[in-house]
Amino acid sequence: MTHSRTTASLKARAEEMTQSGGIPGKLFIDGKSVDAASGKLFDCINPGTGQVIAQIAEGDAEDVNRAVSAARRAFEKGQWSNMAPKDRKKVLIRLADLMEKHAEELAILETLDVGKPIGDSLAVDVPSSANCMRWYGEACDKIYDEVAPSGPNAFGTITREAIGVVAAVVPWNFPLLMACWKLGPALAAGNSVVLKPAEQSPLTALRIAELAMEAGLPEGVLNVVSGFGPTAGQALGMHMDVDCLVFTGSGEVGKLFLQYSGKSNMKRVWLECGGKTPNVVFDDCHDLKKAAEHAAIGIFYNQGEVCTAASRLIVQDTIKDQFVEEVLKVAETMQPGDPMDLDTTMGALVEEKHMERVLSYIQAGKDEGATVRCGGERVLLNQGGYYVAPTVFDGVKNSMRIAQEEIFGPVLSTITFKDAEEAVAIANDSIFGLAACLWTGDVNKAIKLSRRIRAGNMWVNCWDGGDMTMPFGGFKQSGNGRDKSLHALDKYTEIKATWIDLT
Ligand code: NAD
């Protein structure tokens, strides 16, 4: 399909949506849009302008109770949990189709909500989310259970069953995509879900609940409670009738969910937390230009608000100066701009508080003696939004805070190494283990070092490679369990072993 989209047409539609009540703002419980029980509302702020664009229902413990009860009722009723897989498939594929039909609307909501470039929302976030839903829809009737090799006197089956009520608590950096990474496999397996989007980014979550109903999902199977972490999020974590809690977000909050589980009903907890991706570049890399492009895109894409952001550039000393120059050239082309402009490649940070946090890390880097090669400051103040220039530090030691802590902003730390041993040691010297990149023309080196780096995702001669067929998740404090691929279904199913005595 061809589109005659322009920046002007997108801005006109965004204006119309904000003026005419086209921004979803109510909780979605038991198949209906409803107010919060308390009647409370909170501001939805456009990070590109700093302006309030909508009022959102502020769900809390009472709303979480209503949503979990609806989810449980729907699960017990069995309209979804006992639906034939081939019919469940049709609903999820219809939902994917509807997401594509409403792609422009969803992309505008995402950009207004979190400040990411509209071009990325249109080309990446929405299509990838629809693709995820379709992929799990397709999977519904293609997965078989097992018969155990139990011999002539017994019949042993190993079957997977839906786990029940799943609560999904997600972050603001890829609001729709992170939600779909949870919803796709959770719904495909027959569960009911209560989704809590981050308070910074409720809009697309609320909208896809409506689209899911239109696609034919029975009432109560998908509920969305917008609200804050310490209230709505904690209520889900502590709830006695939530069977499984899936989370993407910071390590601090991930650890809280482990505690909530231990203090309540021992619900299964699956965490996707932060990262500090080492991007290791050897001097035998065949395409240093491509490596430099990926090094810059790997940290500046989505304003650096990416859990796999290639935030540590670990480059061999023989090529360091030349390589950093190449990275600076790409950084120059990725300056922040109006997120609603189709030409913008870097937008605004999600909120003022987060921008201040990123700026405080830049100050910490300077204080610890690293050298700013570009950026290092807030820009576009006259727009009213929260923009930080792409920032490259050189002369970083891996022990510095900017190399150890997750900044979640457009800040690159350059570290040098002499040989492969030192490169691996630096790459692994982190509490995180989400992803890592290696650039080398030597295939033996690539394979041997990939085995030694402690990360759930290894990318050789690329950054952020993969598709829905590849599992995603981390080692160490980056979390447990995997999103994407058929492995994600492990989180959303219980295994039942049935032994039938035939004697
Ligand atoms: P966050 O941990 O502050 O919030 C994530 C979610 O947890 C939100 O919905 C929030 O409302 C909720 N929450 C916050 N405090 C809570 C509490 N006390 N109890 C219960 N729930 C609570 O993270 P964020 O600021 O939204 O997102 C940024 C973080 O997410 C980064 O650290 C980033 O690395 C991580 N992240 C990880 C991945 C991944 O796949 N590994 C993907 C995206 C983001």
Q: Radius of gyration in whole Å, from Cα?
A: 23 Å
Q: Which strand-content bin applies to the residues?
A: 15-25%
Tally of DSSP helical segments:
15
Say what the CATH topology of the largest domain is. Aldehyde Dehydrogenase, Chain A, domain 1
**Ligand set:** nicotinamide-adenine-dinucleotide
The residue fraction in helices comes out at 25-40%
CATH superfamily grouping of the largest domain: Aldehyde Dehydrogenase, Chain A, domain 1
In round numbers, the mean pLDDT is 98
Describe what is shown at a glance.
It is built from 15 helices and 23 strands.
Walkthrough of the structure:
It is a single chain. The protein is of the alpha/beta class and 503 residues long. It folds into 2 domains: 7-273 and 479-496, 3-Layer(aba) Sandwich (Aldehyde Dehydrogenase, Chain A, domain 1); 278-467, Aldehyde Dehydrogenase, Chain A, domain 2, CATH 3.40.309. It is built from 15 helices and 23 strands. The protein has helices spanning 7-19, 61-77, 85-101, 103-114, 118-139, 175-188, 203-215, 229-238, 251-263, 288-300, 320-332, 352-367, 401-404, 420-428, 443-452, and strands spanning 27-29, 32-34, 41-46, 51-57, 146-147, 154-162, 165-169, 192-196, 222-224, 244-248, 268-272, 278-281, 312-316, 371-374, 378-379, 387-388, 391-394, 411-417, 432-433, 435-439, 457-460, 475-476, 493-501. The strands form 7 sheets. It has a 7-stranded mixed β-sheet, sandwiched between helices. A 5-stranded parallel β-sheet has the order 9-8-7-10-11, sandwiched between helices. It has a 3-stranded antiparallel β-sheet with strand order 5-6-23, with no helix packed on it. α10 links the parallel β12 and β13 (312-316). α2 (61-77) packs parallel to α8 (229-238), α3 (85-101) packs antiparallel against α5 and α3 (85-101) packs across α7. The longest helix is centred in the first third of the chain and has 22 residues, at 118-139. It is globular and about 70 Å long. The protein starts with 6 loop residues before the first helix and ends with a strand. 52% of the residues are buried. The mean pLDDT is 98. Nicotinamide-adenine-dinucleotide (NAD) binds next to α8 and α9.
